[in-house]
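Q: I'm writing up a methods section and want to include an example of the input and output format. Could you take the sequence below and give the corresponding predicted structure tokens, formatted cleanly so I can copy it straight into the document?
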Amino acid sequence: MSAKILNGKEVSERIKTELKDKVSELKKIGIFPGLAVVLVGNDPASRVYVNSKKRACEFIGIESFEYALPEETTEKQLLELVAELNADKKVNGILVQLPLPEQINEENIINTINPLKDVDAFHPFNVGRIMTGNPVFLPCTPAGVMELVHESGIDVKGKECVVAGRSNIVGKPQAMLLLAEHGTVTICHSRTVNLEEVCKRADILVAAVGKPEFIKGSMIKPGAVVIDVGINRINGKIVGDVEFASASEVASAITPVPGGVGPMTIAMLMKNTVKAAELYYSRA
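A: Here is the clean output for your methods example:
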């Protein structure tokens, strides 16, 4: 058995092309979406992400505002910038690239972003809306995962779904999105007893543990859909949280790393930015 490859690059290109057409129509009625991306310090992985987001904005026609701040930026300075961006009518979406340097409290920054400009969906207001099944914005990576699950042709309803990982950015919101589509959801993590058995129950397995090639083929139910959220660098090579070679022999569909979930995260960010612009102009 050889798994169907869920090509996030192709799906994301399709979504971005649809958004490009939509933005072109919005501009005709005076709606000009704008995204501000704030990068503090010079983390190389963060710089790669920021450049990818910039290219996506350019392609779709979203105005992109970049703020590259030095590593020694204080929390007060960053809070002042966020306040300015909250007030800027040209900026519909604000994204502060994480992680931040240790002198800055990430929670304070996230809580200061206007929830209606919070295109990452990290603000407690947006997290609460996701929990109650009434989201304004969907968190980018989990939303991208759902698009790839749909692409696999599997219906989530009634399926056993296992999310390996419990972070606020992926694991927890991912479980909520699967639940919203009537999946039976289990969250497992490093302290789960019989982790292999739990993973093996999954019809849909989302790996977001942050450990390279942690999920082996032996932990996967034959015919399962496997979505690998992990991005790990080993000896200059990028690998996921799933051991692709053994997993692809067992799964019915699987995402590659790179080229799976990564491009989808950026496409969903663009989708949220366009939605934020529409919301702003509908209130104006």
